C-alpha cells in the first residue's frame, strides 16, 4: 500500500527487495542504450536531468543560496545540440526564462527555437528544504506528466546529481534507468567507505580511523593519532556523509598533556572544534556523528600544499577512465570548503594524480560502481617532488563536474590522457578557472537580465569562435544572495584567470555605479 490508507500502489514498496530487483533489471538495460543509442548523434533519446540535492539537509541549509544549486546542471541543456535529443529538466521552483534562454544561446549550430521545442521544464512549485526527488514522488500528477513526456523508456535515462534511495524509487516508478551509482554502493562514497576502498586500491591515505559513532570514539581516535605522532598539531573530524568540506571540523592539540590524561582532555575540548559549515556547533554536530558515523584523520601540514582532484567516469559497460584533473580552491575557517577549481591540475603532478585516480576508479568498477565521481587528494611538495595522499571519494557529480561538461559541450573538444590537457577539435589547448562562490552583498539586486546585459556589453560572454570567455551558473542566486558561479575559459591558464579577475572588476564597478 502507499501512504494513503486503503490505497493499493502498483509500485514495489520503497526500499524493498522487490524494488531493488526491479532497479537492477532497469540498470542492466542501460548497457544496451550505451552501445546502441549513446554513440549515434541522430538517435532519438530523452535525458531526464534530476539536480536533486539528496544530501544531508541540515548541512545543506547552511550553504548560502543552496536551493539555486539545482541550476548547476543547466549545462546539460547543451545536449540539445544533438538534433533528436529531448531534455526534461526538473526543479523545485520554476526556472527564469531569462536563465533558460541564456543557456540555449550558448548552443553552436542549433537554432534556439529548435532546441527550445525539445526542452521540457517541470517544477514542483515547492521551495521547501527537502530533496527535489522527494517532492516529485509526492506529486502523482507531476509523475504522470513526467512519464508521458519521457515517451519510450528504452531510449531514456536519468542524469542525477546524486543517487540515493529516493532516486532509485523514482527510476523504478518511471521505468527509466539511472546513469549513476546504485544506492546500495553509496557506502563506498562515505568518508569511512572511501578510506577503506582507497587503501585497498593501493593509494596512500592519511593516518586515521573509520566507522566512529560517538564522541567517546572520536576522543580515543584523536588520542591514538597523537600518541602515534607526538608532533601532530591538528587532526580532522569528518562526517561520513559530509560534502564539499561542510561536514568537517578541525581539532587542535595545543597544550595537550602527555600520558593517560590525554583522552579525557580531548573529550572536554570536542565542543570547541573548529567547524567548517557556517553556523555549525557541537550541539548540532554530535548527533550527526551518531546518525551517519564519522572518521578522524591527521591534518596534513605543508608549506607548499595543494588539493588536486581526479574526475573519473565508469560507463555502463564497466570501463573506468580518468576524464580530467583539477587543482581545487578551498576556503572556510580551516581551508577545507570547496570554492572553485583550476583545470587542469599543475603539470608537475597532474599525470601522477591521473594514475592514482585511475587505480581507485578500477577498484570502484570492480565493485559495480557507475557514473561520474571524483577522488580528492592532499599534495605536499617535498624538495623537487610531490607527496600525494588520497582523502576522499565523491561518488556523485560534484563541483568539478559541471565546468568540465561545459568545456566539452562548448568546444566539442576532448581530454588528452597522455598530457592531461584538453584540446579543441583544431588541437588548441583550453584551460579554465571555475568557482561556485563569486559572492558579495554588493551584488544583491543584480537580476538575471542585468547580468546578461553586463556580460554582453563588457564582452565577457563566451565566444564560440575563439573558444574563450565566461559562462555563468547559479544565476538565480545573484539578486537575492549576491552569489554567482562562473566558468572562465582561456587559451592559457593566465587568460582564464584573467577573465575571472575582469568579471569581478566589472561586477564591482557596475554595483558601485
Describe the protein's architecture and organization.
The protein has 513 residues and is of the alpha+beta class. It has four domains: 17-179, 3-Layer(aba) Sandwich (Rossmann fold); 188-203 and 302-399, ATP-grasp fold, B domain (D-amino Acid Aminotransferase, Chain A, domain 1); 207-298, no CATH class; 430-513, TATA-Binding Protein, CATH 3.30.310. The chain is built from 16 helices and 20 strands. It has helices at 17-36, 57-60, 97-104, 112-117, 132-137, 140-150, 165-174, 191-200, 215-228, 262-269, 282-292, 350-366, 401-411, 448-457, 478-481, 493-512; strands at 45-50, 85-91, 119-123, 156-160, 208-212, 234-239, 248-252, 274-275, 294-298, 305-306, 308-314, 320-331, 337-343, 371-382, 385-394, 414-416, 421-423, 431-439, 469-473, 483-490. Strands 10, 11, 12, 13, 14, 15, 18, 19 and 20 form a nine-stranded antiparallel β-sheet that branches. The chain has a five-stranded antiparallel β-sheet with strand order 5-9-6-7-8, sandwiched between helices. A four-stranded parallel β-sheet has the order 3-2-1-4. α1 crosses α7 (165-174) and α9 crosses α10. The termini are far apart. 46% of the residues are buried. The model is unreliable at 1-7 (pLDDT under 50).
